[in-house]
């Protein structure tokens, strides 16, 4: 049989390429003649660059930029064979690296620095994978690094971290948009939240980044004030656009610069040539660390299932954990949903044993499929 293996990562345990390799190992035990095509997936969050590089290659570029807490790091950018430079927000201002630093002190400045470096190096097709940010500054830090001047009442320039926004009195956006006039800017995200309000960046995503419940309204107001000033100066209404609340407001900054929002998983699938690959296979395995009803809201396995369905190819879900929804929507999308946790175990044990257990699971599912097809 011909198999397509297109999983996302098992976060904290295996990257997407390692998941695909474990699946292949199990399938080949059941089917020594198997032809396996590995297409590790991502949805625009952590691991997007690695998944793309594992599948299609490309050239790694590195630039010195600031992380969320202001330290200088060498951050990677992947230049794909088709000329698209992929910037992964999680690798510059990601949540794990921010540690227990106060969210008010974090800034998205490093994203603006990376964009500036890419422009200076001649890149004109840029994709920004927004998932996994630790910042909640409305994109102010990013835009400040690109030339936006944020000024307090005394005319002093502010850096653009969240803690600077209460002091914002006026701003100067001259020349901000011109540098991106000839740039094809893609925004990879599955978030459609606006910048502010009850469904905005601070209210919905702020708490997981360290925003206290008592501070949500105040911070939301500060970000709204910043965006109102900037939208008015540029004669735009960007802060209300779907996706402007992604990545703590970085979606707002990218949209302001002329970016086009699209599903991260669909964008990755397009670059991997997943739709074409599906025309020549008999079965698909996908998966992720934990699958539940949220999986169907634009996550990588749902994207794989949709493409497989359009190609009339069965697709099975092999995930670390599978939490069934009462409506059965998750089960209805796949030809079987399987968890590698086949006995009571701690999360730590499950993560440590993931490669072996995943190979065992893939083998047993493949044997079942082969037996059913032989008897058909």
From TrEMBL:
Name this protein carries in UniProt: Glycerate kinase
Enzyme class: transferase
Cited NCBIfam families: glycerate kinase
Matches recorded under SUPFAM superfamilies: Glycerate kinase I
Database matches in Gene3D superfamilies: Glycerate kinase, domain 1 (3.40.50.10350), Glycerate kinase, domain 2 (3.90.1510.10)
GO MF annotations, alphabetized: glycerate kinase activity
EC number: 2.7.1.-
Family: Belongs to the glycerate kinase type-1 family.
Organism encoding this protein: Aquitalea palustris
Record flagged with keyword Metal-binding: no
Keywords in alphabetical order: Kinase, Transferase
Gene Ontology annotations of biological process type: organic acid phosphorylation
A Pfam family assignment: Gly_kinase
Keyword set includes Metal-binding: no
């Amino acid at each position: 049989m011909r198999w397509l293996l297109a999983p996302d990562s098992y976060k904290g345990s295996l990257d997407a390429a390692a998941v695909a390799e474990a699946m292949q190992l199990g399938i080949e035990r059941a089917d020594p003649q198997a032809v396996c095509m590995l297409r590790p997936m991502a949805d625009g969050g952590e691991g997007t660059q690695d998944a793309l590089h594992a599948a299609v290659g490309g050239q790694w570029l590195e630039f010195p930029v600031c992380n969320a807490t202001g330290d200088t790091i060498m951050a990677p950018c992947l230049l794909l064979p088709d000329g698209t430079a992929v910037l992964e927000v999680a690798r510059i201002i990601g949540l794990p690296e921010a540690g227990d630093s106060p969210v008010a002190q974090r800034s998205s400045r490093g994203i603006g620095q990376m964009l500036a470096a890419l422009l200076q190096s001649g890149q004109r097709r840029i994709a920004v994978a927004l998932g996994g940010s630790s910042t909640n500054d409305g994109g102010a830090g990013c835009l400040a690094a690109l030339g936006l001047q944020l000024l307090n009442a005394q005319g002093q320039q502010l850096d653009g971290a969240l803690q600077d926004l209460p002091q914002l009195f006026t701003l100067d956006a001259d020349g901000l948009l011109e540098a991106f006039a000839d740039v094809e800017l893609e925004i990879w995200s599955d978030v459609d939240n606006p910048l502010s309000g009850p469904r905005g960046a601070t209210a919905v995503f702020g708490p997981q980044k360290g925003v206290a419940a008592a501070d949500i309204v105040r911070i939301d107001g500060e970000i709204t004030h910043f965006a109102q000033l900037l939208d008015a100066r540029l004669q735009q209404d960007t802060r209300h656009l779907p996706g402007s609340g992604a990545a703590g407001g970085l979606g707002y900054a990218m949209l302001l610069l002329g970016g086009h929002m699209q599903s991260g998983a669909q964008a990755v699938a397009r670059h991997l040539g997943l739709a074409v690959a599906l025309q020549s296979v008999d079965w698909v395995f996908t998966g992720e660390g934990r699958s539940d009803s949220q999986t169907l809201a634009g996550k990588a396995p749902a994207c794989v299932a949709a493409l497989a369905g359009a190609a009339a190819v069965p697709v099975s879900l092999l995930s670390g954990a599978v939490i069934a929804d009462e409506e059965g929507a998750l089960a209805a999308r796949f030809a079987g949903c399987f968890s590698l946790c086949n006995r009571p175990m701690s999360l730590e044990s499950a993560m440590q044993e993931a490669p072996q257990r995943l190979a065992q699971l893939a083998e047993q599912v493949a044997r079942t499929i082969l037996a059913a097809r032989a008897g058909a």
